[in-house]
Amino acid sequence: MGQGDAFLIIDGSAQILIDGGPNNEVINCLSRYMPFWDRKLELVILTHPEADHFTGLIDVFKRYHVETLLGNGLKNSTKSYQVLEDLIRAEGSQTLFPKEVNHLRLGLIYLDLLWPTSDYLSTHPDVSKGYNNFSVIFTLKRGDFTALFTGDILPDVSSQIKGLTDVDLIKIPHHGSKNGLTQELLNATTPERAIISVGKNQWGHPHQEVLKMLESAGVKILRTDLEGDIILDLD
Amino acid sequence: MFMTETKTSFPFIRSIRNNFFFWLFIIFLILFRFYQTRPSYHIGDRVRISGVVRSEPIRYDTAQSVKLAGLKAYLPHYPEINYGDFIVIEGAVGEKGKLLKPILINHQSSTNFLYQTRNQIINEYRQTLPEPHSSLIAGVVLGAKSSIPEDFWQALKKTGTAHVVVASGMNVTLVAGFLMNFLVTIINRKKAVIFALLGIWLYTTLSGFDAPLVRAAIMGSIAFSAQGLGKLYSAWRALFLSAALMLIIIPTWLTDLGFILSFVATASLMLFESKVNRLIPFIPNPFREGLATSLAAQIGVAPILYLTFGQLSILSPLINGLLLWTIPLITIIGGMGAIASLIHPILSLPFIYAVYPLTSWFIFVVNLFSSCNLTQPGKLLLPFWLFMPFSSGLSPLIPPHRTMLSSLLVMWVRVTLS
Predict the structure, then answer these.
(1) pLDDT tens-digit series, residues A44-53
(2) pLDDT, mean over chain A
(3) Is the Cβ of A2 closer than 8 Å to some Cβ of chain B?
């Protein structure tokens, strides 16, 4: 889908969509992997309101019934985000914020919400430097499998996240930017696989130092710019 | 306007001969209107244009393209502009009718009942079926092409089937025929004709005033009016009369590819369809009719497509033959679903689900042929003049005077496009 994030988690007839990517390509993804009669997403998580994460959600809300929306509650002043807000309001989805809930369960899937904390939100009211550090960070568990989703979190904040454990899979922060993954985060999570959600871009993502860090830790790298849709089957 | 029959074998030539001064006047009027309505701006001029969007904007990955006053502007995705909305845009006139660095000054969503109904129907399709099924139905039924996924659009273009999901004259014929057949069972023929005419124009307004639809609507109106008034109907006269009317009202259509393709395809069908159909009796129906239609249309359309895009889809007639039989069914069942959705969305489900197998077949065929590279064996770098004897090569199929007409049509297109 290009330079952006979107992940679809399917467990039986329930689906969780994490971010919507930079365009409506996410609709094709949902069409490919969901049965044609299923027009409901049980949970949508918007990690943070930046265009490469929320734009695709506009078409998602136009076409699918979204039962619950989880987001950090921050607003973007762009026209496209206003369109999304109007659609969310019209849809009437239940809205959750990480400062209000710590754990979520959907069928056999468990989510532990790690960031942003209430303290961080109350002490950092200024979003003028961007929304990356306010990304919703969480672990997703199903059976023995654990994945860490990191949004676009930057190094100064990733060191503050409490509750990090060993994971099987990590979503590399910020599309493989050098302002994303740190050795500290890698050591704290010791993943077996790493997904880098990246497309054609002007910033040189993924950066070589991030790739080298992962290679030297023996982590298998999965890149959407090279492999397209990445599918992990846990059964 | 309608005259007595003579013994000339070619109806249009007969029509011109008998009405020479009438057609001369029409041509003069078109030329007058063309020069009178020529835009007064030049390349580089900064302009502010306001108006109602009369053809559906197309949404790309990074922008939406909107046509207004003969200029094409690429605007950001949001606010989303729909057919029927009023907009004001500002920018500099660029080459090839592009508006450079356009800024959207004002945007008012349409409050017109018809436009809102159209959006409601398209939303119902989108909320009921996944992509590209929903866009395919919206395209076939209402000519709504704005949200067709980019990869599927490319597959349609590659297989020469994109014409099916944009406004199609065939839909007008279907709607008119359906209405007429239904209405004559409850009211007398003259009243049925009036309602059928209303239906044609209601459908055209719902679907957008793209050239192929307007052409079909005018031709259909002439045919039904002749029927209602008990007059003799000539398809050729109707075709050229509708072209003339359209060019008098909107002279810029003279250079619109959709307008050109629509007229050439219709002329080709009228000239060759029945003959082609007779030449392929070994192919079973419904594929034979589709293949005959496609082959007949291609005789006129292929040179234009080649001149415009520099490539030809060799297998296009075959692919169209495999697909065209689904179009009337998708239009009628999808249309019934649209009407049902206006009463209550749940009522539309059986109809829209019933279309799903048809769209699945359509998508399967398109994806199959677009994935194997048989449709475009490289760019066919043939000089234009090779197309002149193209029709002559089909001499058993086409009488000499019609070959000449085909060549003249191609020449007209070439001159217009250059």
Answers:
(1) 999 999 998 9
(2) 90
(3) yes
Q: In B, which residues are within 8 Å of A78 by CB distance? A: 78
Q: Which of A30, A63, A79 sits opposite B78 (nearest CB)?
A: A79
pTM of structure: 0.80
Pairwise CA distance, residues A17 & A60, whole Å: 10
Q: Does A202 touch chain B if contact means CB atoms closer than 8 Å?
A: no
CB-based contact (8 Å) between A79 and chain B?
yes
B126 contacts A39? CB cut-off 8 A: no
Contact call for residues B90 and B47 (beta carbons, < 8 A): yes
Out of 3.40.50.970, 3.60.15.10, 3.40.50.1240, 3.40.50.1970, select the CATH number for domain A7-227: 3.60.15.10
Mean pLDDT of chain B: 79
Average pLDDT over every residue of B360-386: 66
Q: Which among B160-169, B197-206, B351-360, B369-378 has the top mean pLDDT?
A: B351-360
A62 shares contact with chain B (CB less than 8 Å) = yes
The predicted-structure confidence for A134-176, as pLDDT tens digits, reads as follows 999 999 999 899 999 999 999 988 888 888 889 999 999 999 9
Q: What is this model's ipTM?
A: 0.85
Domain boundaries, chain A: 7-227
Angle ∠(B154,B349,B82) on CA atoms, nearest 5: 50
Kindly report, residue by residue over A14-33, the tens digit of the pLDDT.
Answer: 999 999 998 888 998 999 99
Over the range B295-323, which residues count as b (16 or more CB within 10 Å of their CB) and which as e?
bbbbbbbbbbbbeeeebbbebbbbbbbbb
Q: Could you give the C-alpha distances from B116 to B59, B122, B123, B140, in angstroms and in order?
A: 19, 10, 10, 19
Chain A residues close to B61, C-beta within 8 Å: 2, 23
Contact A36 B129 (CB under 8 A): yes
Using a CB-CB cut-off of 8 Å, the residues of chain B touching A27 are 130-131, 149
Query: Judging by DSSP bridges, how do beta strands A193-196 and B86-93 pair with one another?
Result: unpaired
Q: Is A24 in contact with B147 (Cβ distance < 8 A)?
A: yes
